[in-house]
Amino acid sequence: MSNSKLKMFTKLYLKDLHEVTAEILIVVIGVVLVTAGFLLGSDQNAPLMIFPLVLLLGLAGLLPLISSFKLLSREWSQNTVYLVMSLPVSGAMILGAKMMVLLTQYIGGTLLIALSSYLLYVTRLSQYLTTQQQGLMMLYNHPQLLQSMLAFYLSGLVFLAFLCCISFFSQIAGKLSSRFSGLVTAATFVITLILSGKILDAVGTGSNELYHMMIQISGNTANYVSNMNMSSLSYLVLAVILFILAAVIYDRKLEL
Amino acid sequence: MSQLDYDKSKAIYKQIIEDFQKQLIRGTLNPGDKIPSQRDYALKVSVNPNTVQRAYQELERIGLTETIRGQGTFVKADTAMISEIRQEMANDILDRFFGEMNSLGYSQEQITEILDRRLMEMKGAISND
Amino acid sequence: MIEFDHVGKRFGSVQALDQLNLQFSPGKIIGLFGPNGAGKSTAMKMIAGLNQPDSGHVLVDGQKPRQSRDKIAFLPEIDYLYGWWTLKQAADFMRSFYADWDDNKYTELLGFLNLREDMKISKISKGQRAKCKLLLTVSRRAPYLLLDEPLSGIDILTREEIINTLIRDFREGEQTIIISTHEINDVESLVDEVFFIDQGRIVVSGSAEELRITQGLSLVEIMKEAFRNVQQ
């Protein structure tokens, strides 16, 4: 019987995906409702649907972070950590599967909303803006725009991964203390976030820089894209470091 | 012999052997009969298979059973052996009887008296049926 | 073989294990007996790699426990399965992680224990859950089977089923089963060797049958004796 790492990872992934069913459903049902809202409603009300869509977008971005806490802490509160920690796999795989679920949540949620937004645009809003073809033409003629959008989206993804890594790291640090785990988790989260900000500012790719970059959108888009990518890269590096730390502590120091 | 019947303060493998011997004496097991496999017996009496193995090995060592490869374990004891075991068991019981009666303070004459009386009663009870 | 060499473990102010020395010989059913809080669960978790000694070391076949997780099937006392799982999903999960999973044994024991694959873990009775846990653990041909209080809180009929399952599938010489419990009565006839532990130390150990022969007492009575002495 082959027990490839991929098979094991998949099982962990599917199991963790099930654990966040509630959060996934919130976004899905929200999008379905809003979509039904503008499909069945009048043309007049349709533009209003932008607001709930934006809200849902925020939710789609935020819920994975909340899920990151649920995914780890639940293992302890439900005692399933006894099962998970006994499995003949590394902490990296355990945490990796959870991270993959969180990224799936984010990508799935945002894509769903993008789809719904496009649907909204196509069915209800086209009269307010240039025709579909003109809209697509714009993208076609200015590939940099597409690149920027992609870079922006990816940086959002990386930033989420970064936050989730801090979440994992804080929770695992919290589990090192049996009596004050909640306190340690919260403190570690805040301290790590602040420290990361400071490190990135020092390196020159921190939030200050990001803000300035966003204002420059109208300027040189190529510059913008590469700056955004640099910023993402540094967040990614930090995320990876935190992930590795979390995995190592899980493997060597956590006890039941 | 179910899970509840054996005395937990004595070696279990010895009790398994004793139980086997009693079955031979009573005739519930006869020479040539096939006895359950070690695993089946362990399951039946809820005992560790290692313990059962020790009992079965001992039974084979003293010649009461033999294992034929591929066929199972069979009673090897003949009637002479069985009557010998019966006598040994009876002697053990008598040893215990006399030991306990002596500790109660009964002399040999008193013991003979009690035994005679009791045997009479038993004979009478039988003839009254 | 499992070895504990001068193992110490402290939780806060409690010394759970105190210079613990023992060897579990392979191929036997071993009883780890002692009152609640004696250190049994701590020792079991240490073998499973779920905690580490403060001092001394534990070795499983010469390796550290965390490297030997694929050889160890640990059955903790608590409910450790995902409530939303069905038995089938749980088995499917285990099958993917352990190369020693035996599907034939799984199917056989499923019938023997009167369980159905569609049973949802959160919805079945405690006894049925105990049987499910046992099924999932025993369906692996793991060389080391660690059972932490496998019978506590279980009704008598289910207990018999569990004990019979262990007897039925025990691979003498190949498999080592370690049962930790404070209810010695249930497993008196099941164990080859016993280790009585109290306050993190071994107070009595040996072959069950030899102890019965030399002391003329049942294991339950031997434990009472041992702990009476310790308390003095």
N→C terminal distance of chain B = 32 Å
Give the low-pLDDT segments of chain B.
none
Q: Characterize the overall form of chain B.
A: elongated
Helix/strand structural class of chain B:
mainly alpha
Major sheet size, sense and barrel closure of chain B: 3 strands, antiparallel
Number of separate strands of chain A: 0
Average pLDDT number of chain A:
85
Query: Helix- and strand-based class of chain A?
Result: mainly alpha
Straight-line distance between termini of chain A: 30 Å
Descriptive overview:
Chain A has 2 domains: 1-129, no CATH class; 141-256, no CATH class. Chain A is 82% helix and 0% strand. Chain A contains 10 helices and no strands. Chain A has helices spanning 5-19, 21-40, 50-77, 81-86, 91-125, 132-141, 143-175, 181-203, 207-215, 221-252. In chain A, helix 1 (5-19) packs across helix 5 (91-125), helix 2 (21-40) runs parallel beside helix 5 (91-125) and helix 5 (91-125) packs antiparallel against helix 10 (221-252). The radius of gyration of chain A is 21 Å and the shape is globular. The model of chain A has no long low-confidence stretch (mean pLDDT 85). Chain B is mostly helical. Chain B contains 5 helices and 3 strands, in the order H-E-H-H-E-E-H-H. In chain B, helix 1 (12-26) crosses helix 3, helix 1 crosses helix 4 (79-104) and helix 2 (38-45) packs across helix 3. Chain B starts with 11 loop residues before the first helix and ends with a helix. With 232 residues, chain C is of the alpha/beta class. Chain C has one domain (2-43, 50-231): Rossmann fold (3-Layer(aba) Sandwich). In chain C, the strands form 2 sheets. Chain C has a 6-stranded mixed sheet, with helices on both faces. The mean pLDDT of chain C is 92. The chains are: A mainly alpha (256), B mainly alpha (129), C alpha/beta (232). Chain A binds chain C through residues 1, 3, 7-8, 10-11, 15, 18-19, 78-83, 85-89, 251, 255-256, and chain C through 45, 48-52, 66, 69-70, 72, 74, 76, 78-84, 92-93, 95-99, 101.
